[in-house]
Structure formats: structure tokens, C-alpha cells
Amino acid sequence: MDTAKKRLAITMGDAAGIGPEVIVRAWADPRVHQCSRPVVLGHPDIMCQAVRLLDAKLGVIEVDKDFDQVMPDTIPCLRVGSDDVLAVPHGSVDALTGQAAYEALIRAIDETLAGRFDGIVTAPLSKAALHAAGHFYPGHTELLAERCGVTDFAMMLYLPPEELPNSVAGLGVVHVTLHMALSEVFANLSTAAILEKCHLAQRVMHEGFGLESPRIGVCALNPHGGESGLFGDEETRIIAPAVEQAQAAGISVTGPFPTDTLMVRARDGEFDAIVAMYHDQGHIALKLLGMHRAVNITLGLPIIRTSVAHGTAFDRAWQATAESTGMVAAITTAAKLAK
Question: Which of 54, 121, 219, 337 sits at 20 to 30 Å (Cα–Cα) from 273?
């Protein structure tokens, strides 16, 4: 067994969604096994159903504590959750699958904190199903942060360097605010929060991806960067002071810049990371650059966590059409960060 390969916990996500399919498809990609020893956390029978659906030449074995039974043609599955999940119709929001996804994530976090895994890769869960099961989190990110006991954290969407011809280490987009109504964004923006995200962006691009001095661009909030106060003063009142404080701390950061041009400059290689003010400001731009190849990375945790950058796709689930490129990228990125 090559112990240099990182042992990764792959959570199955919502069993009614495309998570099991993308895991099975990704398992057939040799890049996954070149860098990692993955173990699925979920229900073995669901994984068997996905193998049959895709007519994959894979076996599924149930494991307990012996995680080293990992072979490219076998999916080891650590059973989490009850058999009730087997009765949930495919493509539906249900508290049973929400509970199962929650239990798999909690088990993955606890096992990784205990040192039995080197990192976590999550398949998508349904926020509605999570809420139906009584777990009132906006998503993976906030649940991970609470379980790990951290308050300074962020979601970063990341495109690997092979997707950007002018990039050395890829492009990351860190979000200051995340899962909230757009009307709440203004009240949740602060100089301190923006400064914190600049530090997190610098740290992951330096320590995780090996850049000596990552170049970070900060988004404006308003159209045209506020147009000298005509369209809002958040740029001068909140964002610019954060940039100045980050520069004083030795971070190579500039801004705020209007987002429509900033993302073009980043795509062309001028920046290694972007700090976006709200969810869609960062998500839309990066997903246009590489929807199925983007990776979701949670920053600020004491453990490594990556994920696909898409949802459960209930409308396409269990139809053998799921795209696995993002899962492969999430696994290889987690293995790289775990080093």
C-alpha cells in the first residue's frame, strides 16, 4: 500500500441526487488513484445501485476500521446512516436522505480530526433536505466550521491551473459573504471581514498551492466601483480600508476593482486569487470559466475539505448522465492540499 497517497473520506451526499453517480464515474479515472486512497462514507447499497446504473466494472465492499483495502476496481464504503434511505425516491427532497447526508459529513469530520483521514471530499447535499431533517445550516461550509470550532472561514471556488493557460497555480475566488439573501449583504460587509478573507486567500495560495507572494484582487461592490460615490460609497468607506490594512500586513493585494473587468484580468493571469463581496459575484464568473471543473474549498478549517462546485441536480439524478469532472478535480485538489 502506497502510504504517500492521501487517505480521503468521500461523503456520498444526498442519496437521491447525483452524488453516488459522480463518485462512481470519478472512481474510473486513474488520476484519482494516482494521488489518493479514497473511502466512501454512505450507504453501500446506494453505491451498488449507482455501479449497476452506470454498468461500471467496480465492486463495492463494506469497511469498518480497515481503510487500506483501497483498489482502483473496488469502492470501499464505510456504512453511515440507516436503511430507511433506500426507500427515498430518486430526485426528491426528503428528510431521510438529508439526515443520512448529515451523518456522513459529521462522521467524516470527526474521523479526519482524529487523524484517520487526511482530508474530506464532499458530494453535494440538499439544503432543503438538510433542513427537513432538522439541521438548520445554509450548507456544508457553515456546518464544517461549527463542527471544527472555527469562526474565521470562507468558501473559495478554485480552478486548477490546467484550466487557465496563463496561470501558475490556478485561480481562487474567496467570498466575504456567502449563503444569505442579497438584501442582507450590505449589513454583513465590514472592513474586518474583508481583511480576514484577504488573509485566508493569501494563506491558501501560499501554503496550499506554493506561491511565494500570491497576487490578490479585491472586487468592488457597486457598479463601476461606485463611480466616485455616485452609485454607493462602500468602496471608499469599507473595502479600500481593508485593502490598505492587508497591504500593511505584507499581502500583495490591490483593489477594489469593478468586477466585470477584474475577472477578465484574473483569467488572463494578472491575479492568483480574487476576494468577492457576495456569493453570485464570485460564483457566476468562475463557473463561466469552468463550471464542471471548478472545486469548492473551505478555508480556515484545521482539516482539508474540498467539494464539487455544483448541486444535487435532482432533475438529472439517477439517469446515468452525471458529469464527474468536478469530482475528479475535487479529489486531486484535496490530495494536493493534504501534502
Answer: 121
